[in-house]
Amino acid sequence: MHRTPQVTRRQFTLGSLAAIMLPLAGCSLTSEIPQDLPSYDPKEKSPRGFVEPPFLRERVAAGELPPIDERLPEDCFVVGSGTLLQPRYGEWRDGRYGGTIRNTPTSPTGNLNLATGSTILRSPSQTTDQAMPNVVSGFHASDDMRTFAFTLRKGLRWSDGTPVTTEDVRFLFEDLYRHPDSNTPFPTDLYTQRDTRLAPAELRVLDDLRFELGFEAPYGQFVAALHSWIPTVSMLFVASHHLKRYHGDYADPAALQQELDAAGASSWGELMTMKNLPSWSSGEADALGLPVLNAWVLTEVKETSRVFERNPYFWHVDSSGQQLPYADSVVNYIVVDDDALLRAVMDGQVTVAAGDNVTLNNMAVYTQSGEHADTRVFLTHSFNFPPLLFLNHDFRHDAPDDPWQQLVADPDSRFGRALSLAIDPAAINSSVYFGLHGEPMLNSAEHDPEKARTILDQVGMDEVDDKGYRLGPDGKAFTFAITFPTIALDFAPVAELVRSQLEDVGLRVTIKGVDDGLFGQLVSDNAVMASIHWNDGAGWSTGISNDYMPNEKGAWSPETWAYVQSKGDQGRKPPAYIQEFYDIASRRTEHPPASPAGKDAYEQLMGWLMDHYAFIPTTGLRVKPNVAKNGIANLPGAGAPFELDTILNLEGIWFER
Fold it and tell me: Which pLDDT score is estimated for 126?
């Protein structure tokens, strides 16, 4: 039986794919500035209707930079209401230039990689249903979802002023992805249907601005990958003019050897890995000098800080003709640990803090320090699901008579059902999350310990030992072992409460927290029976995230995943009921997430996951605090669906005072 999962009714209404096919209008702007924002004289506008950021005027006057009309492409991405944020969750007002965004992350990049603005397509918030060409000016998907056509923005430039052309795509595909010595494999999203057993995308370059990608089977979910802030633009484009100096087929041998020696690299492929950095490494020292399409460019690297300044060639503008970002710079002051980060927020040293930089258990501290820090706190929902209890369906799979395999492979999934009935999400919400998380959801929505006891009796666990713990279906001692990584403060108290609630229905339960590296090794060794972890469940329906797969986070079937990926050379051949999941997941990738077929496949997928108890939520939808300086405009409002919108929208925030 497949149920309609409760969570999808709390998420987005997905629209037609037709919106994707429409290029944005050109960006010669003439609209007047709002009367309440006298940030510039309308006479200062350029012939094309743009306003030069004061931060750059000296460089333009000195001839170090061309004027704004020459820096921006013929057709810009015009930002306004409904482009960065969903209108119902955040009011947009054209702002004014100036100011520095200050962060105190525990890593050089912090969350700034999420605020780059450089995805191929863009929809407001985390949706994919109002897709607008972003880096590109035009995009078209064939009716059979096998061919995707792109047109680059004419005049779009890298942050060093070099034009972006299809050579940046060709170099990436032919000289990196397909080069045996480059150490640059195809990303999963570029394999047909995200299946590494199928062929990766075939590139066809039409001219300097137009190219096509072809796949061997329908791959409508590729639309979601083009929206994703995880690979951003680097999935399809790299600054080829810059990276060729590190490539063995292009670089002068003597100059390349100097680069190798300086980096301590043994091959140009190793050097390329160090220089062609992913978005989450944009604050690392090696990113200095790397041309980007981001809103801000790394300009200064110190041991305890990173400075990013506005990209003079960033192609986003508002309706008043102002080039985004509004803030001139971002400074990341790197702190040593989470305690130091908390102190920085309390002292008012942070402009905007969201995501992993703030936690619900510190909510009272943020509120109490607000007057001193000149900050406000607001609650939003989260891109992450709350901690989930994952059941590893592959644990002890090589012993089919093992009681665990009898329990998880039960066609009626009675053991998983009993666990879900025994878990009390409301009690966990009250004890750990101050009652702020949402209502119980998905397959943990019903709490009935007595029914759980009845089901455990029915699956053959009706006998108990001398301490009152249930024996396994084989009549021997049975222990339900939960392992969790110690990467989140809430995992341990949630695990303690889950243990108590399961013991209340007669199960012997152990819990063990381990560091993330050891957790990964245990999962790799298939040594985890059950685990507590989170994932990006709120992004599943739109296709932005696919971490419901068996190898992700809690890894509910890592051995069948190994079998599938190795084409049968490793792991466990999926039993029929797990093969059904792979079939549904594959079918889902054929369609755009916003299409009727895509939504139907998603409902089937969620139905399978819930019916077979791959995981069980421990509370309702997650709530996260966001902290921001007073007087910051264009932030999401309280109750918005994602805390990540606060970060993703940084290019659009501005200082009202």
Answer: 81
Neighbours of 1 (CB within 10 A): 6
Averaged pLDDT for residues 297-301: 97
Cβ(122)–Cβ(132) below 8 Å: yes
Give me the pLDDT at residue 43, please. 65
152, β-bridge pairs? 136
Categorize the per-residue pLDDT at 21 as very low, low, confident or very high, splitting at 50, 70 and 90.
very low
pLDDT score, position 231: 79
pLDDT of 364-397, one tens digit each?
999 999 999 999 999 999 999 999 999 999 999 9
User: Which residue, among 27, 150, 127, has the nearest Cα to 77 in the 3D structure?
Assistant: 27
Residues 6+ apart with CB under 8 A from 588: 221, 598, 601, 602, 604, 605
DSSP for 328-361? Answer: SEEEEE--SSHHHHHHHHHTT--SEE-GGG--GG
DSSP 175: I
Per DSSP, the residues of 96-117 read: ----EEEE--SSSSTTGGGG--
On the question of pLDDT at 37 being above 70, the answer is no
Compute the distance between CA of residue 161 and CA of residue 130 in angstroms, rounded to an integer: 30
Structure token digits, residue 54: 């004061």
- Read off the pLDDT of residues 86-98 as tens digits, 9 standing for 90 and up: 888 888 999 999 9
Say what the pLDDT of residue 453 is: 98
Encode 423-455 in three state secondary structure: CCHHHHHHHHCCCCCCCCCHHHCCCCHHHHHHH
213 phi and psi, to 5 degrees?
-120, 130
Phi and psi at residue 309, in whole multiples of 5°? -115, 160
- Pairing relationship of beta strands 329-333 and 132-133 according to DSSP bridges: unpaired
Q: Quick one: pLDDT at residue 535?
A: 92
Reported confidence tier of residue 128, pLDDT bands at 50, 70, 90: confident
Closest CA to 392 of 482, 477, 479: 482
Q: Cβ neighbours of residue 315 under 8 Å, at least 6 residues apart?
A: 72, 73, 76, 77, 153, 156, 293
Is the separation of the CB atoms in 473 and 405 below 8 Å? no
DSSP helix/strand/coil, 168: helix
Rounded to an integer, the average pLDDT of 415-444 is: 96
Q: What share of the chain is helix, strand, coil (3-state, %, to 5)?
A: 35, 15, 50
Nearest to 625 by CA among 331, 370, 340: 370
The average pLDDT across 601-629 equals 96
Q: Which residues are paired to 121 by β-bridges? A: 133
- Residue listed under structure tokens 């810009």: 76
Q: Which two tokens stand for residue 381?
A: 């929902």
Maximum Cα–Cα distance across the chain = 88
* Cα–Cα dist 313/293, whole Å: 8
What is the rounded distance in angstroms from the CA atom of residue 89 to the CA atom of residue 642? 10
Please give the pLDDT value at position 24. 33
Taking only the tens place, the pLDDT of each residue in 153-189 is 999 999 999 999 999 999 999 999 999 999 999 999 9
Amino acid letter, 130: Q
Which residue from 389, 507, 505, 508 is spatially nearest to 454, judged by alpha carbons?
Answer: 505
Distance CA 525, CA 198 (A): 26
Q: Which residues pair with 380 in a beta bridge?
A: 624
Amino acid identity at 367: T
Other Cβ atoms within 10 Å of 476 Cβ, number: 10
